């Protein structure tokens, strides 16, 4: 994760609304929902960098190679959340998204995480270079920005 000077730069943030169905038998949001919320935010990032038009006709695009989540505080219905991402570790065919989910209701971080994204040709499963336009957009979302 980035150092404390960079902690305020989260260029993409979306609202999340906890629903009753997100809860589990222990009375808090089930841990699997956090991964789903990461996915919602990640896909909004894909859309913004030009990788959001995915489907069977798509030749290449991003795949999730690894996801991690650190749970910091429980979440319960009806909390309002904000899910944010920023880009780190940009390579020629891959990059990492850092995730942060914050409870607006309780003004605290409830989860941190990361997603490793690799660009692949879907027919072969082989890695391919990121398009120059995608690289440019990723750099705008980088944690290295001022």
List keywords for this structure.
single chain, 146 residues, alpha+beta, Thiol Ester Dehydrase, Chain A, six-stranded antiparallel beta sheet, 2 helices, 6 strands
Helices and strands in order:
Blueprint: E1 12-17, H1 31-49, E2 60-71, E3 80-88, E4 94-103, E5 108-121, E6 126-127, H2 132-140
Antiparallel strand pairs: 1-3, 2-5, 3-4, 4-5, 5-6
Q: What does this molecule look like?
A:
The protein has 146 residues and is of the alpha+beta class. It has one domain (4-140): Thiol Ester Dehydrase, Chain A (Roll), CATH 3.10.129.10. 19% of the residues lie in helices and 36% in strands. The chain contains two helices and six strands, in the order E-H-E-E-E-E-E-H. The chain has helices at 31-49, 132-140, and strands at residues 12-17, 60-71, 80-88, 94-103, 108-121, 126-127. It is globular.
State the gist of this model.
The protein is an alpha+beta fold and 146 residues long.
Shape assignment: globular
Oligomerization category of the chains in this entry: single chain
Report the average pLDDT across residues: 91
List the uncertain runs. 1-6
Q: For the record, what CATH class applies?
A: Alpha Beta
Question: How widely separated are the two ends?
Answer: 16 Å
Biggest pleated sheet? 6 strands, antiparallel
- Secondary-structure arrangement, i.e. CATH architecture: Roll
Structural class assignment: alpha+beta
């Amino acid at each position: 994760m980035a150092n404390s000077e960079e902690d305020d730069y989260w260029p993409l943030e979306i609202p999340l609304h906890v629903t009753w169905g997100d809860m589990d038998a222990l009375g808090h949001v089930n841990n699997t929902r956090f991964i789903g919320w990461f996915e919602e935010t990640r896909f909004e990032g894909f859309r913004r960098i030009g990788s959001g038009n995915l489907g069977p006709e798509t030749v290449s695009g991003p795949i999730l190679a690894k996801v991690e989540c650190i749970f910091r505080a429980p979440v319960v219905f009806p909390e309002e959340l904000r899910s944010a991402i920023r880009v780190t570790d940009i390579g020629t065919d891959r990059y990492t998204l850092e995730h942060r989910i914050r409870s607006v209701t309780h003004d605290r971080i409830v989860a941190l995480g990361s997603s490793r994204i690799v660009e692949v040709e879907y027919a072969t499963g082989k890695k391919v270079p990121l398009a120059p336009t995608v690289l440019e957009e990723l750099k705008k979302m980088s944690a290295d920005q001022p």
